[in-house]
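Changelog-adjacent note: as of this version, every example in the card shows the full chain rather than a window. The one below runs 250 residues end to end.
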Amino acid sequence: MAPPRQHVVLVVEDEPDVLELICLNLRAADFHTVGASNGAEGLEKAMSDLPDLMVLDLMLPELGGLEVCKTLRRNPTTADLPILILTAKAEPADRVQGLELGADDYLTKPFSPRELVLRTRSLLRRRGKGAPPAEPIRHENLVVYPQRHEAFVRNRQVDLTATEFRLLSVLLRGRGRVHRREDLLREVWGYDKAMDTRTVDTHVRRLRDKLASAAHYIETVRGIGYRFRAKRREAEEPVRRRPPWPKPDE
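Full-length structure tokens:
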């Protein structure tokens, strides 16, 4: 029997020592790695080699990491490529911008090689799950087609990244139920231990922006997580009215 195919990870990093460190740890975890030292080279290799996942720095020569991410998401061939941003830019605004442009995960330097491998495996495990159900999921003005990876609001297609689509699908299938942020990290991102839950908040905010008139379906449950609003007949129990009090004897 032939051995299973190694997953190919494209690492785009302009610092040679960091590039070697990343590739060394990924190879030790049984990944095949391909390196690129600038954004233009990374974009070209992503288009030609079609790797299983990309680890992407932001501060790159020739072409910045955010532009690389945006370009890949606009191309149908690479639109679903898992992208893990690994960068020294640790400000919340940088994280938000990276996730909004379509990155699936965001890890800051200095980083733990073990965590990098964990997140890489989680992203690939998520991508390799079984085929989604064929039947569309409908909720009032929203229709989601799992196999086609398409969502429509009032017959208008919504442009979603792979992670946004998974998040919407998980919330919609569990409508009426409260999803804790930690549960969403596990169900959508594939994490088996506690991670930064701000990733969830950023993706939910972006998803709401894209859903526009259907954004109100996703409700925030303060201090816990999120809930996709159920239809009235699903969410409300019938009101049990008390029988009228007997009239006092006259």
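Structural remarks: Residues 108 and 198 are 14 Å apart (CA to CA).
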